[in-house]
Amino acid sequence: MKDLFGKAILDYQTNNSPEDLITETSISEADEMSVAYLFRGYAEMPKMEQKTLNLAKGKVLDVGCGAGSHALYLQNERNLDVTAIDISANAVKACELRGVKKALVQNVMELENETFDTILLMMNGAGMCGKLNKISGFLQKLKSLLNENGQILLDSSDIIYMFDEDEDGGKWIPSDNDYYGEVIFNVSYKGEKEEPFDWMYIDYNTLQNAAYANGLQCELLLEGEHFDYLAKLTHA
């Protein structure tokens, strides 16, 4: 990986002529994303993110922390013990420059010997497992990092609305998709292209079924206006 997402974050943090990121998926056209959005403060965050941050408690793990905006708020405004992790070395460097006290280059699937009261998977963070057939291993790993009375807070979207309907109201979903929420992501930055990677938007019912199958309770906390939702997973 060229870590273009992280480069954009670090460029913005260090005033190194940041440009917009270009994102494209297997089911959507190229779209420009302002890196500044990743540096938003609490007041600029969507209600769903604000609610998530208000629900965070105890020792917190922010998975896929990006520019560290959520970790910074929890650390500075809520005085919580936050560990921010990302596989992007550039993003973690930006987090450190912004003042995140504990920011680590770390894949959550390889994190050992530590447990948390709150695990955050924000901005469709559950999608990092990539494919639905990997969700059990992903949830089992998160469960192993969770304290007895801990919580996993995650948001995602049901992207069924992006597919065309036939005359009977059914959806046309490409037959090469194992699950309609699976997409291939492409990211470009400053003329460079990242290696394509798998990502997944998981609808609530599918998440709930996967949670129950892996010994976790699943609760719907909030539904957004754009087929998005916030869920809480806890030990069953």
From TrEMBL:
GO MF annotations, alphabetized: methyltransferase activity
InterPro entries in UniProt: Methyltransf_25 (IPR041698), SAM-dependent_MTases_sf (IPR029063)
Gene3D superfamilies: Vaccinia Virus protein VP39
SUPFAM superfamilies noted in UniProt: S-adenosyl-L-methionine-dependent methyltransferases
GO biological process: methylation
Domain (Methyltransferase) ranges: 60-150
Keyword annotations from UniProtKB, A to Z: Methyltransferase, Transferase
Pfam families: Methyltransf_25
Protein name: Methyltransferase family protein
